[in-house]
Amino acid sequence: MKKVHPSFAAGDAAMPAVELSELDRRLINALQGGFPLSERPFQAAAETLGVAEATLIARIETLLQTGVLTRFGPLFNADRMGGINVLAAMSLPKSDFERIAAFVSAQPEIAHNYRREHALNLWFVGAAESPDKVEAVFDYIESVSGYPVYRFPKEREFFVELKLEA
Amino acid sequence: MDDLDLALVAATQSGLPLTPRPYHALAESLGLTPAEVMARMNAMLESGVIRRIGVVPNHYALGYRANGMTVWDVDDDQVDALGERVGRLAFVSHCYRRPRQLPLWPYNLFAMVHARSHEQAQAYADAIAAMLGDACRRADILYSSRLLKKTGLRIVE
Asked: Are residues A91 and A53 located together in one domain of the fold?
């Protein structure tokens, strides 16, 4: 039941910073959590922002369309639903980097893949419905590439309350 | 979680309906009552299945370009207590304890920081270093220099 699909511009590093209106900023700063579970939640949220319900709905729609927002709604914790994500890294020589990075990205179970500046220069997340499936993908990458995959499974997650300031 | 919870996850993982009564719209499509939809979502919020409900901004669109993975080699006896404190810093988006991979990788605490410049990210790292004090032996910041793949995690089909 769990599959990974490509999504839109979320996290696209090529995306330029966007010029935001004062209302957009207040909206983003106020609504990164705590959206009401009530009959007219937009109306309740709009009141605290001092705008009309329809204005708030239209702004959220526009911010989604322009890619300023990647999502609007509940943010799920995949770990609590039986799925598993495992961080892993490889140390690749320059001559092999492009080929193996592309091979890693091509695996459907690999959700994120980044180059980072370190001896461990390729960092990725394997996501699947079971630890065995993630392990199998990492094993496959090792056997095809000939390079070790270093696993960094979460041993403990610490509570965070990040809010990005717009 | 039962089948109805999973149906709710499937119906909302790409977002809430942008209509004045979004939970009523969900209820109608799932054959539930609005009160049931709200009660189930509230229960998932309380159990942590839902982290939060709201807008999820694109870091880059807000000008957060220096996204650094700060990593720390912290004394095993102190890492859990210190990790709790680091996670609560406003600029830390993810904070985990993970295994070391010696000798290549001596770090056991990972904290992602989001900043608008490398200078700002470094200042955040300095604040974490001050919090860790003598319990930390070594540290590094890894910036992503290229995004090779990022897919949204879709949990339920």
From this structure: no
What is this model's ipTM? 0.78
- pLDDT tens per residue, range A45-55: 999 999 999 99
Which of B14, B12, B37 has the alpha carbon at shortest distance from B24?
Answer: B37
**Residue A77 and residue B102: Cα distance in Å, rounded?**
30
Task: Say yes or no to pLDDT of B152 above 70.
Answer: no
Which residues form the domain of A92? 78-152
Chain A hits for B153, CB-CB cut-off 8 Å, are 4, 78, 83, 85, 111, 127
* B78-96: average pLDDT: 95
> For chain A, how many structural domains are there in total?
2
Bridge-based pairing of strands A156-157 and A3-6 is: unpaired
Taking an 8 Å cut-off on Cβ atoms, the answer to whether A113 and B80 are in contact is: no
Q: Does B62 touch chain A (CB under 8 A)?
A: yes
Contact residues for B128 (Cβ-Cβ < 8 A; gap 6+): B70, B72, B86, B89, B92, B111, B113
Q: Are residues A93 and A141 in the same domain?
A: yes
Residues in CB range of A136: below 8 A, 6 or more apart: none
From A139, A144, A3, select the one nearest B155 (Cα to Cα): A3
Same structural domain for residues A84 and A148?
Answer: yes
Of the residues A44, A65, A86, which one is the last residue of a structural domain? A65
| Helix A131-145 vs helix A94-105: crossing angle, to nearest 10 | 140
Q: Smallest Cβ distance to B105: which of A5, A71, A120?
A: A120
pLDDT tens digits along A40-82:
999 999 999 999 999 999 999 999 999 899 889 998 887 777 7
Judgement on whether residues A132 and A90 belong to the same structural domain of the protein: yes
Segments of chain A assigned E as strands = 3-6, 69-76, 84-90, 110-116, 122-128, 150-152, 156-157
Q: Closest-CA residue in chain A for B115?
A: A164
A39 and A103 in a single domain? The answer is: no
